[in-house]
Design goal:
This protein is of the alpha+beta class. It has 18 helices and ten strands. It has two domains: 166 residues, no CATH class; 156 residues. The longest helix is centred in the middle third of the chain and has 22 residues.
């Protein structure tokens, strides 16, 4: 490493205050803009470590101008930063190689700086990031078609300066789902659990220990996502799901049960551990009063010897409290990353919108 590790957001804050802002103040006095570090990057979610510095990490910035100013001044600002940025900030190079590549790495230079300052406007950035212009209030398609990872990247990170206030308003608008959409997504998450909750026990009974453990791990993932939704946190993609879940308050009991479920070699203990996690999550939902309380206790799976929570009961209670007719009529597939699990698909906002629109149109037919 070039210098002792510091969290990326702190480094980006120094980069803005000590390197970028002085140049803007000198060359573009009175320019209205916002400066932030948001979008993709482990530092935006607060999970970067010394390992993160090997790619796409370092002094970076998103600089938001009005659409007119971005067109008029964007190229000039980019050129100014190329020519006059300091070569490093707090020991970290401001130059990234190779320029224009999908993955770039901090590299010391004595010449012009290939920087990572994106000069854009709020509308353009939000369409690229989310698939829609988030300067307006999101509609149902916007909420359901946007992967939770993308939403987490938008409201995470830090805004270092916002003269116009437009970016701050956008982030506040996207801070969390409307209550009925929240209920719908929680109901869809319980439905995912309900579809497989008896399978670890049945697979083990059939002699498929690997299959039993695999389904248990899938269910553990679903419970972690459920808890994040209950806590009003956008679940990140798989690399940071466990870290985000572990940061939640009061999840020690659930986390211990899930660890036991995926580690134990005893199928009966595995099923019981999952039920312990379900019960704790169900009690959490009852405390939120998003729906009428539902008895949060395990029960037999019909006449088979596999205890379950009967997750559909919690989905039904949530659905019963949805007042918006459009949301109430939705299928229980949920949001895009509850029914699509392809990274290529989830990384393309236009495709996620097309897939979600197809689901909504099918419901209307």
């Amino acid at each position: 490493m070039f210098a002792p590790f510091m969290p990326g957001l702190r480094l980006c804050r120094f980069f803005y205050a000590e390197a970028v802002r002085p140049l803007l103040d000198e060359a573009y006095p009175g320019l209205a803009y916002a400066a932030a570090r948001i979008g993709p990057g482990s530092e935006v979610l607060g999970f970067d470590t010394a390992r993160s510095v090997d790619h796409d990490w370092g002094p970076r910035l998103e600089l938001f101008l009005s659409s007119g100013d971005a067109e008029r001044h964007g190229p000039g600002i980019a050129a100014l930063l190329t020519e006059r940025l300091p070569k490093d900030v707090h020991g970290w190079p401001t130059n990234f190689e190779p320029p224009g590549a999908r993955v770039r790495v901090m590299t010391a230079t004595t010449g012009p700086v290939a920087h990572r300052v994106l000069v854009t406007d709020v509308a353009t950035w939000s369409v690229q990031q989310l698939g829609f212009d988030a300067r307006r209030e999101p509609d149902l398609l916007d909420w359901l078609a946007t992967p939770t990872q993308r939403l987490a990247e938008t409201v995470g990170g830090e805004v270092f300066h916002d003269g116009p206030g437009e970016l701050t308003a956008l982030r506040a608008r996207l801070r969390w789902y409307p209550d009925d959409v929240w209920r719908h997504l929680l109901a869809a998450q319980w439905t995912r659990i309900g579809e497989e909750e008896a399978f670890p026990g049945r697979a083990a009974e059939a002699g498929d220990e690997l299959g039993s453990r695999t389904v248990a791990a899938r269910l553990a993932r679903e419970v972690m996502r459920l808890c994040l939704l209950l806590a009003r946190r956008f679940p990140p993609y798989s690399k940071w799901l466990g870290s985000s879940f572990a940061s939640l308050p009061e999840v020690d009991r659930i986390a211990a049960a899930l660890r036991d479920a995926v580690a134990t070699g005893d199928p009966r203990r595995r099923q019981d551990a999952l039920c312990t996690a379900y019960e704790a999550a169900a009690s959490w939902q009852n405390r939120l009063a998003l729906a009428d309380p539902v008895e949060a206790t395990r029960r037999p799976y019909f006449d088979r010897p596999f205890p379950v929570i009967e997750a559909g009961r919690f989905a039904a209670a949530l659905r019963a409290r949805i007042s918006d007719p459009e949301v109430a009529g939705l299928p229980l597939a949920g949001g895009i990353d509850q029914f699509v699990d392809s990274t290529d698909a989830l990384s393309d906002p236009h495709l996620t919108r097309a897939l979600t629109a197809a689901l909504l149109n099918r419901r209307r037919c």
